[in-house]
Write a structure and sequence with these properties.
By secondary structure, this protein is of the alpha/beta class. It has one domain (3-124): STAS domain (Transcription Regulator spoIIAA, 2-Layer Sandwich), CATH 3.30.750.24. It contains 4 helices and 5 strands. It has a 5-stranded mixed sheet with strand order 1-2-3-4-5, sandwiched between helices. Strand 3, helix 2 (59-75) and strand 4 form a beta-alpha-beta unit. The longest helix is centred in the N-terminal third of the chain and has 18 residues, at 24-41. The N and C termini lie far apart (33 Å). 24% of the residues are buried.
């Protein structure tokens, strides 16, 4: 499986580590898994670690991800603006910055980092 997900009880952060090739199908599976944890523990902070992954999404798929996320959250009874997401990448990838911009333009909180510690620090800021 290209990802592992844990709930960090100490920090109240849902942490997902990706490895290998990540596709839209994998992203959808991860969203479903995260929503279950969000509902179970009432935690709205997520960290996606993509440093060991290659994201294989088209520009159109990247553009549609925030709407997909919004739709799935809303169907689950979760307001999309409540979720705060940090993404850790190995290097400066234009696709992630495009995703960050599209996500912010859709009223969702997301930020790109290259350091896990900085990502966690940002997530924990209220």
């Amino acid at each position: 499986m290209p990802h592992t997900m844990i709930y960090n009880l100490e920090l109240c952060i849902i942490e997902t580590k990706y490895q290998g090739i990540v596709t839209l199908k994998e992203i959808k599976e991860t969203i479903s898994e995260a929503i279950q944890i969000i509902q179970d523990v009432n935690c709205f902070l997520t960290l996606g670690d993509y440093r060991n992954a290659k994201v294989n999404l088209s520009t159109l798929e990247i553009h549609q991800l925030p709407k997909l996320m919004s739709d799935v959250l809303t169907q689950s009874g979760i307001a999309p603006y409540k979720l705060k997401r940090a993404f850790v990448i190995a290097k400066d990838l234009d696709d992630f910055h495009f995703f960050e911009t599209v996500t912010l333009n859709n009223g969702q909180m997301a930020k790109i980092f290259q350091d896990v510690g900085e990502a966690k620090k940002w997530l924990l800021q209220r």
